[in-house]
Design a protein that fits this description.
By secondary structure, this protein is an alpha/beta fold. It has one domain: Flavodoxin domain (Rossmann fold, 3-Layer(aba) Sandwich), CATH 3.40.50. The protein contains five helices and six strands. Strands 1, 2, 3, 4, 5 and 6 form a six-stranded mixed sheet that branches. Strand 1, helix 1 and strand 2 form a beta-alpha-beta unit. Helix 1 crosses helix 5.
Length: 203
């Protein structure tokens, strides 16, 4: 299938490359599922880059966010893949949200945010409860800065409470997770295609 849409997966693991990451694994599975709908893309493990704290587009010399931001704005779909820590999105993922806050000050010639028309989705992994809470936090923040969300825009896996098994340690992907990932990909790609052909009106 010829690809007409692109996706960027930002992984909020706390673990630098090349160590394995469960959140990156699920993020890559989302990207593969999007590929079945003609979407190509890439994965960026944010912790491998010097993304400075702040709420500006560019926090000065050495800040890696401006280059990542260019990739965000070039993509039709943004996927945030995060682990759960203490019932919350990771600190790396929250830093991405803080940097995306700068988009509230950026508009096109028709007074629309540059993120209007872009679609977001979320992938969550953890060894404790909190996937719904984590996705709710990310949904609200992503929508605030201009991204659209399709129905079923999250896939997640959480292990049994107080145990140590990671998603990447499973012998196979659980069927409910695979189904949620497929739904996310189908609905997200569908919405992105619709918005590509019918942009939001001027603000």
């Amino acid at each position: 299938m010829t690809s007409t849409l692109t996706a960027l997966v930002l992984v909020g693991t706390l673990t630098p490359s090349p160590a394995p990451s469960s959140s990156e694994l699920l993020g890559r599975q989302v990207l593969a599922a999007l590929g079945e709908h003609g979407v190509s893309g890439e994965v960026v493990r944010v912790v491998d880059h010097d993304v400075r704290p702040g709420v500006e587009k560019d926090m000065g010399p050495g800040d890696a966010w401006p280059a990542i931001r260019e990739r965000v704005l070039a993509a039709d779909i943004l996927v945030l893949a995060t682990p759960i820590w203490m019932g919350q999105p990771s600190s790396v993922t929250k830093r991405v949200l803080e940097r995306l806050d700068a988009e509230l000050s950026e508009q096109d010639e028709q007074s629309r945010l540059l993120t209007y028309g872009k679609v977001a989705a979320v992938a969550v992994v953890g060894n404790e409860d909190g996937a719904h809470h984590t996705s709710a936090e990310l949904f609200q923040a992503l929508n605030d800065v201009g991204f659209s969300l399709a129905p079923g825009a999250v896939t997640y896996w959480v292990g049994r409470a107080m145990e140590t098994q990671d998603y990447q340690d499973l012998d196979e992907t659980p069927e409910p997770v695979a189904t949620a990932t497929a739904t996310l990909a189908s609905n997200t790609a569908h919405l992105a295609k619709l918005l590509a052909g019918a942009p939001f009106p001027p603000s």
